[in-house]
Amino acid sequence: MKAQGEGRFLPLLIALSVLFVLYPLVDVLGVTRLFRILFILVLVVAVYTLGERRRQLVIVLALALPSAIGQAVALTHPNAATLKIAVGFALLFVGYVTVVILRGVLKGGKVTGDKIAGAIGAYLLLGLSWAMLYAMIDLFVPGAFEGSIDAAAHDGSTGRDFGFIYYSFVTLTTLGYGDVSPLSPIAR
After folding, report:
1. CA-to-CA distance for 131 and 143, rounded, in angstroms?
2. What is the pTM of this model?
3. Which carries the bigger pLDDT value, residue 143 or residue 49?
């Protein structure tokens, strides 16, 4: 018999994996708007993952709904203002989900496959959180970064805000290729 909450982290890990595997393809094919739709699906899976307890469900829904609406608005009306709202709400949601998952993974008890899936998912969410933070900096301080990220336009139509995923994971894994450089003090 499954313990309460057992098996909840795997669907989120799968959804995040699909999101990150499809990201380069979506970018190369020029359909970066599809990435926003995939991100909204990840939001739904995250709500499922954390929605086991009523109080937790209320909090996660209160954060997920503005995030999903923000993504939908940025999808249909891409501009700097809608991107700031979408990225801001998404950052709050992803940050909260990451903290809750890390608390669940790091509490005592037997190490299970589900806890390992949760730990990997939390790592991916940390990378996504940093990407959103970099995007927020870029949206508020244009020119804060230079390099390969400059290929995307600042008008929001190409998904420049999601272009920081690459930079986030290169930094998080300490690879540091150097093809993207922070210029402004806040970006550093």
Report:
1. 16
2. 0.85
3. 49
